[in-house]
Amino acid sequence: MRNNLSQRSNFSNHNRRYLHSGLIILLITLCSGCSAASNNVSESPIKNEQPLKGPYELAAEQNVPSVVSYQPPEDSLRFINEPIFKFNDVAYRYVLSPLANGYQQIVPEPVDNSISNFFYNLREPLYAVNHLLQGEFKASGKSIARVLFNSTVGLLGLFDAADSMMDVERHKTTFGDTLASYGVGHGAYVVLPLLGPSDLRDTASLTFNYFAHPLNYINDDEVATQLLLADGIQAQIPILAKYPDVLADVENPYEFVRNLYMQNLLRDGQARRDEIFKTEKQKKLIANPVSKIDGAVE
Questions:
Q1: Which residues sit opposite 251 in a β-bridge?
Q2: Which of 8, 80, 114, 205 could lock 158 by a disulfide, CB 3.0 to 4.6 Å apart?
Q3: Coil vs helix vs strand at 248
Q4: Over residues 118-140, mean pLDDT
Q5: How far lies 295's CA from each of 118, 147, 194, 279, 281, in Å?
Q6: Does the pTM of the predicted model rise above 0.90?
């Protein structure tokens, strides 16, 4: 038994060394590739697409008031949320935010873009599945085409060749959007450890995305876990870097972040409802062109 445990430990250590060596080689390759690409900027411009923006980043950029009428939420889970928020606040300010700023200063922007593209490409099958569940068959087909093209021509997704060469843009969506499309409400506001503000619907989305992520189907569980963590951290770097500045002069950070998150959630929900209304109205006009003409005559 001890020999087996010792062998597994040695095997795990070997895996870690191989993974670290591989990551270093990948980083060196990317840096050298980017230096070569800088000489041909006019031939292949790099698109600086940022990850999905969170409440902190939106607050830093937002200069206009929300268009959604809003009242403070009930926040029935505040007795749990607030202690978790305080823990997150300390972790963000003194650990994760300095690391995020250091990452942005050290890692060249083209390399960061390639890393983002790589992880976006891994999530593309999730976009395809959710578009399919939402009845958006065309968008689902585009996501499938993107992952196939970027995984080959785009060198495992390091470059968004589908967008630059085929003009097929990325259309992000989540399982939370899928649930919303079926009328599922966002539920109670919750604060997740390290992940920050969320709600019950988006928490279910995180669970779905974790178990359905393509990385879970590779043979090496340890490498898959490390890549999943790297994916989550890398996507939050722009948000974490701005966190202390956004909350610098805020009197009650917990309520500020909660209210900001809920306002964004309600505004996104209103935009979704408006889009559904427009789509249904267009369908009726197409189905009844005569009534449209009669209405115009009147």
A1: none
A2: 114
A3: coil
A4: 94
A5: 51, 46, 55, 19, 14
A6: no
